[in-house]
Amino acid sequence: MNSPEFDQALALARQHPLFHSLGDGQFKRLVRCAHLHNLASGQPLFMQNETAERFYLIISGTVKLYRLHTDGREIIINVLKSNETAGEAAMFFDKPSYPVNASIEDKAQLLSFSNRVYKELLEASSSTCFKVMGALACRLQNCLSEIETLTHQTATQRVVRFILGLIEEQDRHKEQVEITLPVAKRLIAARLAMQPETFSRVIHDFRAQGLLEINGPVLNIARTSALKEMV
User: Fold this and answer.
1) Do both 169 and 109 map to the same domain?
2) 10 Å Cβ neighbour count for 74?
3) Quick one: what percent of the chain has pLDDT higher than 70?
4) Same-domain check for residues 167 and 133
């Protein structure tokens, strides 16, 4: 019998594009090999070139994807949050292995699934396979749109776009809003393709202009309309 915590995680997974195209019987087969993980900050999830046997859905917390430079420096590839997946692409390689390292940035809960079982489900049903391909194509298009945005916008515009994206739907009409940065500033900077110093400079420029106040990870936005005008 599953725990309530496990059932809640599965309910979230069922709505994800990788799973909502599966029939009930297919999903139940996949779930039989699923595991729930509660991991602490700093724990490794998988290593680059490690054989990829499982992929992960983030229920809560954040996961950092990175590679190591020859001089030992971390090169952050991405920072994943709730309802995003890690390691799923590796199952489609001729020799399935993870192309990057992954570690827990903030305490996280994840569901893991068997790559072998998921591939078998796709191989057994061309209809399901095409539906999943469609979902992955949409995700790819979103990634390309994000890359285009990062390429054409200034550092200030990228930071504004990120901040505005953190405002809850019900608060987007308000002029004054409080938001909390979801991860460390250096990780946000990496996701926005800039140096941490640049991110900090932009935030402090906004403070000097009276657009917001900073209290640790909390930003109290005083004039959302002024930020919207920047993008």
Assistant:
1) no
2) 14
3) 100
4) no
* Identity of residue 10: L
Q: Based on the fold, state whether residues 22 and 118 are members of the same structural domain.
A: yes
160 exposed, middle or buried (CB, 10 Å; 0-12, 13-18, 19+)?
Answer: buried
| Full 3-state SS string of the chain | CCCHHHHHHHHHHHCCCCCCCCCHHHHHHHHCCCEEEEECCCCEEECCCCECCEEEEEEEEEEEEEEECCCCCEEEEEEECCCCEECCHHHHCCCCECCCEEEEEEEEEEEEEEHHHHHHHHHHCHHHHHHHHHHHHHHHHHHHHHHHHHHHCCHHHHHHHHHHHCCCHHHCCCCCEEEECCCCHHHHHHHCCCCHHHHHHHHHHHHHCCCEEEECCEEEECCHHHHHHCC
Amino acid (one-letter) located at 54: R
Using CB atoms within 10 A of its CB, is residue 166 exposed (0-12), middle (13-18) or buried (19+)?
Answer: middle
**pLDDT surpasses 80 at 144:** no
Same domain, yes or no: 31 and 96:
yes
How does pLDDT run across 76-110, given as a tens digit for each residue? Answer: 888 888 999 999 989 988 888 999 999 998 899 99
Cα–Cα distance between 104 and 124 in angstroms, integer? 34
Q: Indicate whether 72 and 111 sit together in one domain.
A: yes
